[in-house]
Amino acid sequence: MSDDEVGVATGDDHVATIEIRRPPNNFFDAALITRLAEVTEDLAEDGDTRAVVLCSEGKHFCAGANFSREGEGAGETVRLYDAAVRLFRQPLPIVAAVQGAAVGGGLGLALAADFRVVAPEARFTANFALLGFHQGFGISVTLPRVVGPQAAMELLTTGRRIGGEEAVRIGLADRLVAQAEVRAGAHALAADIAAAAPLAVRSIRATLRGDLADQVAAAVDHERIEQQRLMRTADFREGVASVAERRPGRFTGH
Q1: Which of 140, 142, 131, 126 is nearest to 94 (CA)?
Q2: Are the beta carbons of 56 and 99 closer than 8 angstroms?
Q3: Using one digit for the tens of pLDDT, what is the confidence trace for 35-45?
Q4: Which CATH number fits domain 3-177: 3.70.10.10, 3.40.50.1580, 3.90.226.10, 3.30.10.20?
Q5: What is the pLDDT of residues 188-217, one digit of tens each?
Q6: Beta strands at 6-10 and 15-20: parallel, antiparallel or unpaired
């Protein structure tokens, strides 16, 4: 993967900015998530970085997985989720700056961060059921953790889209700012974290997250099995077609 697809910048406030550069939709694949894991691990070891801003170039934060690599099949999914677990295991606090859409796996990536700063125009969608599909990227664990089991069930079973204001209201996002200030707002929160004692911050974060990474590792194993099962159904084929054609799905339960 070209380094042009992930930009890294550091400053004198101990905050590093990691920018995904696949505009406008910033679709991910295993290579991109692996690169994000590698970068955050390197920053954690450099002795200077204390917090990270995760952001994206272009219109949307992340519109989900890149399905153009279908030929790699299950092996690609295994590599993707292995990299996702690495991202959860790295020790630095991450603040996601979410502009535009965080859809499907893009929502999962946003939930890998500790905090999310959004604008009213942000859109969050767990649209898996509308595709005839099962959620992935550990969302089975991370979404209920931040919004509660009942709200997570409603979002996952309806696939409805919510904006930034509702995201903050239900706990999916932490701060609401103007669209033009999303990245600056995320940096301000990361700088507040970086100004605190770094050993204490890492210790507090580790205590509060507990075995989250292990839970995600177990969840993605189950999610992958369910995804592979459902991808063989007529409803999945119909779901993909209906979304591509911008029409309601005509599902039959087969």
Answers
A1: 142
A2: yes
A3: 999 999 999 99
A4: 3.90.226.10
A5: 999 999 999 999 999 999 999 999 999 999
A6: antiparallel
Per-residue pLDDT, 125? 97
* Separation between Cα atoms, residue 98 and residue 179, nearest integer Å: 9
pLDDT higher than threshold 70 for residue 237: yes
Q: Round to whole Å and give the CA distance between 171 and 152.
A: 11
Q: Is residue 59 classed as helix, strand or coil in its secondary structure?
A: coil
Amino acid at 227: Q
Residue pair 126/208 in contact by the 8 Å Cβ criterion: no
- Residues 62, 29: contact at Cβ < 8 Å? no
Tell me: pLDDT of 70 over 90. Answer: no
- Average pLDDT, rounded, for the chain: 95
CB 65 within 8 A of CB 27: yes
- Quote the Cα angle for 247-152-204, to 5°: 135
